[in-house]
Fold this protein.
Amino acid sequence: MKFGRYIAIAVVVIAAMVLVAAAVLLSTGQTVKAGDTVSVYYTGSFTNGTVFSSNFGQTPLNFTVGANQLISGFDQGVIGMQLDQNKTITIPPQEGYGYVNASRIMTVPANVFGVNSTKNITVGTGVTRIVNGLQEHGVITAVGSDNVTVDFNSPLAGKTLVFKIEVIAIHQS
């Protein structure tokens, strides 16, 4: 009778261990797919290694894969990744911020800035304009005697980007 009791306890313990192992395998085997909401850490750099953005050790980036919340190369780059996986992806301009668009670079008279002279306007200064009710940010790239050139392209336009990504959470749809 005692022997049968030990067998029953052993069967229960083994069954519990199998369930725990199965749960661990399922949770670590999650793979990112379109529609999932994911949390990631990332470091973005240029091909020369210069880092332009990183959130490692900070608040994770949360987004829904395939919902056009990020540049397409990043969005597509996480598909197929697993929980706790690290990956480096290279994103060409057409899958990132696009190519530099010459029509977004404009030369305007200095008086647009409320001044009659360009002597107090400096290259590198950020400016904002409203187009169709939306704010657009640009940077002054040249200052002439009467005119100022402003580039409203993204600073990342025309660049190949390299991202190191770590998936830290997957909430499957």
